[in-house]
Design a protein that fits this description.
globular, disordered N terminus, 8-stranded mixed β-sheet, binds zinc ion, Metallo-beta-lactamase, Chain A
Length: 661
């Protein structure tokens, strides 16, 4: 096994090798052995002074923050935990007072999007417990920013009250924003299952936060009750599309009893996890659940989702009937049970597995390290041109990443003939053992078309059951509602359409229609000790923050708007050199345009724009000879905008420059 891991490490880039070795050094066994109460207690002691919720006059000046001023502008760079961290702007918003004995829930992210940015908070007294912290991959309106993260600006003044983060599972829409948000909230202790925490560690190691993080590992497969602050929390194993997922039972001293499903499906024959333990589920249901918060991702599909076993059976049938060329399986890199099924099949039919794509290699590496996978030492071979040439093609199963958000996922590179170890050949078979993320249909079709040109055989889930959903369909959702029989029901993880469908399913199976809580991100609900619910008229202001390189900004910011303008109509820069005193133009005007018009139009249009700019400038200076430069520039820009719009019906970004000499 060791050889295989070493080989995989070699395949990673130098950069990621450094990160992995860092991980090995930093991960001391102590985080594994610490008792939950002890770690939590230590953490509380560290932050124990005055943890009551800040009131309105509170000033946000944390002691350990060093603020440096950059150059002459007002931008501030904040250093914390040895590195620059993003900084949410201070907000004037304060959480409304929570009455004694009441329990509060606020969805922070994930309720206005689908499969993205999941995050919520539970508050009792002065304690705030956070659940999950995911990203949203770039949407077209983010204009190639990297990803967007939950808006926690309102929480930054409550860092003393936020000591704990519960993570339900390791998908990026549940953990991806931790690397940005953990330091902003002063590194709350992370609670989760073994695989989840390892993948969290991997993510935060990338930004060098591991030495500052604290973890409490929970085995969701055995009975457990963890006291987290004033909250009583139990973790339960649940089936999904990555191993070691948990759903949560959270009870507060005020009598609120929440069940939070995380992402879930019901699979009676999963490959790596255990089937759902309905007896334990029902026992929780018998406690009298105040509110069920349930995953809405699959809520628009009728029936039951297929078992992972059926996918395995189909893949086995494909392998048993396959006689020539190589077999490429395109799969999501976190679907570790799918990889295990392919390992089982390869060993049964005397084939070899190659892994392609960094995230696939890294995830399998972690799963291997933690003994989630079982395999013979020789089944997985290192993906090199030498190895693929020395093994007959029909003995090679190549499992490749297929992240449709990444332009350069391994399969995409292969389809474009840019992969360093795999050249697609006529006679190969490509199986799409994955679903199409809504909105990505065209890019998927584009990759399939490129592959078909090589003469390969394509198999998708439209041809055979080579993929199943990791999220419950309507009938599975009904089973959860029936098992927990909650008084109130809150569909989570989905936009209004998905949540509304889920609400209908819940009402059909148990919940009173008036007890459905359809909450947008930022809505606040408080549960009284007698179980009644109060929906606050006050809403947390939640905005759309994007991460772009090292920086962060709002999607409504002028930067994103300017990018949109440049993308839509190009850029025009015009420079005038004028006499400081007389304001007379001293030299020919210089005009540069980018992506403004097609080549044929350029020369003529340039002449016209230069003439018009000269005219606008001279008329303006004649009317007001001592006009301030910024006003002059504004007039030049707006008049040129109107002129160009009329002339070519386009609205490029216009940048006038007046150099006075
Ligand atoms: Zn998930």
């Amino acid at each position: 096994m060791k050889d295989f891991l070493d080989e995989l490490e070699d395949e990673l880039s130098g950069d990621s090798r450094t990160r992995i070795s860092q991980e090995k050094v930093q991960v001391s066994p102590e985080w594994n052995t610490q008792k939950p109460e002890k770690v939590a207690q230590n953490n509380i002691q560290k932050r124990s002074h005055n943890t009551s919720l800040p009131q309105k006059q509170y000033k946000n000046t944390p002691q350990n923050r060093r603020v440096t001023q950059q150059g002459n502008n007002d931008e501030k760079t904040y250093h914390k935990y040895g590195r620059k961290i993003i900084e949410f702007p201070e907000t004037k918003f304060f959480l409304p007072t929570l009455r004694e004995g009441y329990t509060r829930y606020i969805p922070i992210g994930g309720n206005n999007e689908i499969g993205a940015k999941n995050m919520g908070m539970v508050q009792y007294g002065d304690d705030i417990l956070l659940i999950d912290c995911g990203v949203q991959f770039a949407e077209p309106e983010m204009l190639w920013a990297d990803y967007s993260i939950p808006d926690v600006s309102f929480l930054t003044k409550y860092t003393k009250n936020i000591k704990w983060f519960i993570i339900t599972h390791a998908h990026l829409d549940h953990i991806g924003a931790l690397k940005n948000i953990l330091p902003v909230l002063d590194m709350p202790v992370l609670y989760g299952t073994k695989l989840t925490l390892w993948l969290v560690k991997k993510a935060i190691t990338e930004v060098w936060l591991l030495p500052y993080a604290k973890f409490v590992e929970i085995d969701a497969g055995v009975e457990n009750t963890t006291k987290i602050g004033q909250f009583q929390v139990e973790f339960f194993s649940v089936n999904h599309s990555i191993p070691d997922c948990a759903w949560l039972y959270i009870e507060t001293p005020g009598g609120a009893k929440f069940v939070h499903t995380g992402d879930f499906k019901i699979d009676h024959t999963p490959r790596l996890d255990k089937p759902a333990d309905f007896e334990r589920y029902e026992e929780i249901g018998n406690r009298g659940i105040t509110m069920l918060l349930s995953d809405s991702t699959g809520s628009t599909t009728k029936g039951f989702s297929m078992s992972e076993k059926e996918v395995g059976d189909t893949l086995e049938k494909i392998v048993s009937e396959w006689t020539k060329g190589r077999l490429l399986i395109a799969a999501f890199s976190s679907w570790i049970s799918r990889v295990q099924q392919l390992i089982d099949i390869a060993e049964k039919y005397d084939k070899y597995i190659f892994l392609s794509g960094r995230s696939m290699v890294e995830n399998i590496q972690v799963a291997q390290k933690l003994w989630y996978l079982s395999m013979k030492p020789w089944t997985i071979k290192k993906l090199t041109a030498k190895n693929t040439e020395s093994i007959p093609p029909h003995k090679q199963i190549i499992i490749t990443t297929w992240s449709q958000w990444e332009e350069f996922s391994a399969l995409q590179r292969m389809a474009e003939g840019k992969h360093n170890a795999i050249t697609i050949q006529a006679g190969d078979t490509v199986v799409f053992s994955s679903s199409v993320v809504p909105g990505n249909e065209r890019s998927v079709a584009g990759v399939i078309n490129k592959l078909l040109r090589y003469g390969v055989k394509i198999i998708t889930k439209a041809d055979a059951p080579v993929h199943t959903s990791g999220n419950a369909y309507q009938e599975e959702q009904k089973i959860f509602v029936r098992l927990f029989r909650p008084k109130y029901f809150m569909p989570i993880y989905g936009d209004l359409y998905f949540r509304t469908r889920h609400a209908e399913t819940a009402v059909q199976s148990w919940v009173k229609e008036s007890n459905v809580l359809l909450l947008d991100n930022g809505n606040i609900i408080d549960f009284a000790p007698n179980g009644s619910v109060f929906r606050s008229k006050i809403k947390v202001p939640i905005q759309e923050y994007v991460i772009d390189g090292n920086g962060m900004g709002l999607t409504t910011s002028h930067v994103i708007k300017a990018r949109e303008q440049m993308m839509n109509a190009g850029v025009l820069v015009i420079q005038l050199t004028v006499d400081k005193k007389s304001r007379a133009i001293l030299a020919p005007l210089r005009l540069e345009t980018r992506w403004l018009v097609y080549v044929d139009e350029v020369r003529y249009l340039h002449k016209v724009i230069i003439k018009k700019t000269r005219e606008i400038y001279e008329n303006t200076v004649k009317a007001v000879p001592d006009m301030e430069e910024k006003d002059l520039l504004r007039i030049l820009r707006t008049d040129l905008e109107q002129f160009i719009l009329k002339r070519i019906e386009r609205e490029p970004m216009i940048i006038p420059i007046v150099t006075m000499v």
